[in-house]
Amino acid sequence: MDTLGVGIIGFGFIGKVHTYGYRNIPLFYDPMPVRTKLVGVADVAPGRAQQAALDNGFEFGTDDWRELIDRDDIHIIDICSPNSQHLEQILAALAAGKHVYCEKPLVVGDEEARKVAAALDSYRGTGQMTFQYRFFPATLRAKQLIDEGFLGNVISFRAGFLHSGSVDASKPMGWKQMKSECGGVLQDLGSHIIDLMEHLVGPFDRISAQTNILYPFRPNSKGEMIPVEADDHALMMMRLPNGAMGTIEASKIATGAEDELFFEIHGDQGALRYRQMDTNYLEAYDMRESEHPIGGQRGWRKIATVNRYEKPASGFPTPKFSVGWMRAHMHCQYTFLNAIATGQPAEPSLQWGLHLREILSVAEVSAETGQWMTLPQRTLASSST
Question: Are 118 and 142 in the same domain?
Answer without folding.
Answer: no
